[in-house]
Amino acid sequence: MSLLLSRRDLSFMLYDWLAVESLCERPRYADHSRETFEAALDTSEAIATDKFAPHNRKSDLNEPTFDGERVHMIPEVGEALRAFCDAGLMAAAQDYDLGGMQLPTVVDKACMAWFMAANIGTAAYPFLSIGNANLLLAHGTPAQIDAFVRPQMTGQFLGTMCLSEPQAGSSLSDVATRAVPDAAPDAAGDPLGPRYRLFGNKMWISAGEHELSENIVHLVLAKIPGPDGKPVPGVKGLSLFAVPKRIIKRDGTLGERNDVVLAGLNHKMGYRGTTNTLLNFGEGRHRPGADLGLDPAAGAIGWLVGQPGQGLAAMFHMMNEARIGVGLGATVLGYTGYLHALEYARNRPQGRLMGPAGKNAAAPQVPIVRHPDVRRMLLAQKAYVEGALGLNLYCARLVDDQHTHPDEAARAEAELLLDILTPIAKSWPSQWCLHANSLAIQVHGGYGYTRDYPVEQFYRDNRLNPIHEGTHGIQGLDLLGRKVVMQNGAALAALEARLRRDLGRAQAGEDAELQGYALQLDTRWRRLLAVTRELWDSGDPLLTLANASVYLEAFGHVVLAWVWLQQAMAVKGDDDFAQGKRQACRYFFAWELPSVDPQLDLLASLDTTTLDMQEGWF
Amino acid sequence: MSLLLSRRDLSFMLYDWLAVESLCERPRYADHSRETFEAALDTSEAIATDKFAPHNRKSDLNEPTFDGERVHMIPEVGEALRAFCDAGLMAAAQDYDLGGMQLPTVVDKACMAWFMAANIGTAAYPFLSIGNANLLLAHGTPAQIDAFVRPQMTGQFLGTMCLSEPQAGSSLSDVATRAVPDAAPDAAGDPLGPRYRLFGNKMWISAGEHELSENIVHLVLAKIPGPDGKPVPGVKGLSLFAVPKRIIKRDGTLGERNDVVLAGLNHKMGYRGTTNTLLNFGEGRHRPGADLGLDPAAGAIGWLVGQPGQGLAAMFHMMNEARIGVGLGATVLGYTGYLHALEYARNRPQGRLMGPAGKNAAAPQVPIVRHPDVRRMLLAQKAYVEGALGLNLYCARLVDDQHTHPDEAARAEAELLLDILTPIAKSWPSQWCLHANSLAIQVHGGYGYTRDYPVEQFYRDNRLNPIHEGTHGIQGLDLLGRKVVMQNGAALAALEARLRRDLGRAQAGEDAELQGYALQLDTRWRRLLAVTRELWDSGDPLLTLANASVYLEAFGHVVLAWVWLQQAMAVKGDDDFAQGKRQACRYFFAWELPSVDPQLDLLASLDTTTLDMQEGWF
């Protein structure tokens, strides 16, 4: 059995619960069937197992280095990436026209889950590139797509997202990178779009420099100076630019170096296989221009993508998918940790069970999986990781509906659901599957704390996920400050409708246990809605949002209870798998869901403890 | 201001709350005063700051290595240790007769806290040695004390505790190391005690090998074969032995190598400055004996400490202190992380506050300490680390009462309180101050995830603490399975008496807020007692103990609420410090204490979810 993910569980989620086969009725997926889905999963599992997993520890021990000129990393990363690209997986979800397979997003994400579970550091390169390509596909011109996207479909180029700066992490309105219109006469009419020169520094750019591909396409948020020559304050001033590491000549071949250079690598606690960079744009190290027939000059040459001032909107277009992707990464790190802990617990003899007459020291030791506290830790992990995987795949399924559902209203509904579920799909796995990794260490005891076992790396790798792509705190503000009130609560209403449909199914059935879950969930859901109203009725946004992180966490547990209820309703039969699903659901409702009650009490009290705390009092 | 610990907070706890000066009325501490306490704290803070903290990261980056013969480590460790020993701190709490200062334990622990906060890896060497020395002082003969303890008082020797084996971690009854009576005619009459040869492997031995001292005194749990030549099963067969790395000749000088050798270093996620070893006893690499006038032979020469079969009892004698020490280490890692996060939050500008009209993007950014969610994270850290430090010092104060209170009943009461509080003092900081370290990373955002900032190391270092000196699960079993029922509930009753005394003081006062806390705490305490009874009324120990970890956590939060109530009652005035204490107490009661309610509900339901989970269902 694989220690990366459970294929059995994936099959259950995809076919028994999420009815992914029904997508084949849609024109886009007409060539597909369960067999083609399984073939893609087979390929992914095989490459992940054979090419990604084996160098996961080696990447951790040998992080990329920078000699001032080039980045060096272990060769296995490039080899794994080539296997991934050769299998066509860069374009798995894309149009046939782009060389893609037109796989449904939900199947594509299930495939990607294998690579992230096997080696999150190496997997980051293709996944960032896929995000970059999707953004350009949505907002770029055909010429931009030809120049920047097609080479990414084969791995010839890779891509990044350049948002943060040293002084602008969570606060993107403070981005200071300037994009100055190119003064040359052809600049506005450049076939790749309006041409600019960029100047500034970008921080935390994953995959910002490496030798894994011929070129790197940076998608950069920058500000075009306003009429007064100054950048427009706030996010309204942000525009999006494509800035290749190497200039693409008019004949399509690669030319000179653009003026974007690596200023340094960040050295992290985990996730070490992925280069994380500080990039300098326009510092004059290179003076590009000649290969485009221009005067060589300092300044990174970039082409505007979409409209000026619409940069953040374009980025947000991709944000849901990027955030769900981060959540999926967190989930599968938790999942593989769980499987490793389970394997260890089944094979490690230690101690004896308590009997009515105490313990018999002369009896042989038992495998630790038989100790109730170890079972608690394993069952908790199972509940976290299978719940989180369910939520991530549910969201991926919604992406398919958003783009391909034949009914327009259903497409709009899917988009609303994605809007409100995304902060949960990102934050919940980042919190609880990280906790699962901690439990996986604990199951291993002292061995888990050593670098001879992989669980400590999962824990270190996973600690990034509550930070990047919007911190935990940012997700809370997004959920409570934006998503639950957007369009007069339309997203919240869409979620409620789905939830009520499932509660109704559970209540209408004959399974008393499911009815019980429905009742418990219904109680919390009503309370959550009431608390949401009370928070917004305060009339003071600072007060409303003060405890947004707690709101996020309570909302998350309620959503996960709903995910577990759905899984419990979807599972059939009485085999070990089905029993395990039911027991994990029992665990979630008995052990986890009740923790939201004191959280909701706190929120309902409009508690000002943290708001009242004065800086001088610390 | 120091980023290691708050001296202001220490002063408050020691003098305003725990009335440590009153200890000076006892004969043992008659030479002491607040001035001598402060002098010891000054020295500790200075050496910790100047000699321990500067190489904390360097130790992490350059962990000890083993060339097959010797262990190599950075020289700063030895230099720090020399400064520590030269200041007389190895013997700070010991008798004058041993070269000690006769400092009260509570002051000694406050001193030690500085070293652990500065560099937990280097601090581990003296602290393990102090534990070793204390055990020998309690159970060794005068000759053993002269031979093995006195050299540890100056750092000439260092000591270890050798309990675990590869196949016996939590389950000490499975220790397989054999101690065979030495066949030489003088063996029983050896001036150092009955002499044995030891054979076996010991795992996870911290400080098990190094070149920091002339000799290493291992205290080893091993089994003497019974009349049938076989080791006695269970813990009843365990005896304790002193096994020096180098033989001490009859004239007191150091002689040949004993037959205990390093088989390998464990490579850990954190705590890297401390060597953690697999030691082989009696594999024949050395054949000691000649320096004692014996025939050279394989087998590590060791001397019995205390009585045969009483090894675990002797170890348990020191277990409370060792476990409180682990808790203190966890606490101060959390504490220094908090201070680092606070410093960062006060200096890092990012974003703007929400006003009635939204945010003004043209205004300058504010320090992140002004964001409510950052304040939440800082206040949570403050509540965890100051609460935990309070509990650890409270326990240290009890150690003083246990040993030096003039009233015999009070000494017995202190021992009972220590028995029941130790699992909390060990586990609660290991859980919540580790969580504080995670919050410290989160406050730093991406920077906190890099190795350029110290918080990620604190987080990695602290992850050991829920594992060693009895895992979290073991602490739960100890608390629920042993401590709350010992002597017909005498320890629980002793704790209740103390708690009721404090509740009474709060209720009798005029502060409505304190009265409110007392009411909240009273409710939870009564519930906890009721749940304890319900658990034991089940009649099935497996069922009673199935959810012992949850019991431990709920019990811990109740105890910490009591600690916070005491601190809130002890703090006077209205300066920033006092306001901060009160706000942290408010936080604990509003945000933390209510989380025990669903835990107590779960326990009261005698939930069998984890017990019912079958191995095949995972």
From TrEMBL, chains A, B:
InterPro entries: Acyl-CoA_dh-like_C_dom, Acyl-CoA_Oxase/DH_mid-dom_sf, AcylCo_DH-like_C, AcylCo_DH/oxidase_C, AcylCoA_DH/ox_N_sf, AcylCoA_DH/oxidase_NM_dom_sf, Diverse_Acyl-CoA_DH. Its cofactor is FAD. GO terms for molecular function: flavin adenine dinucleotide binding; oxidoreductase activity, acting on the CH-CH group of donors. The keyword Flavoprotein applies. It comes from the Bacteria. Keywords: FAD, Flavoprotein. Residues 511-614 form the Acetyl-CoA dehydrogenase-like C-terminal domain. It holds the Pfam family Acyl-CoA_dh_C. Residues 309-477 form the Acyl-CoA dehydrogenase/oxidase C-terminal domain. Belongs to the acyl-CoA dehydrogenase family. This is Acyl-CoA dehydrogenase. It comes from Verticiella sediminum.
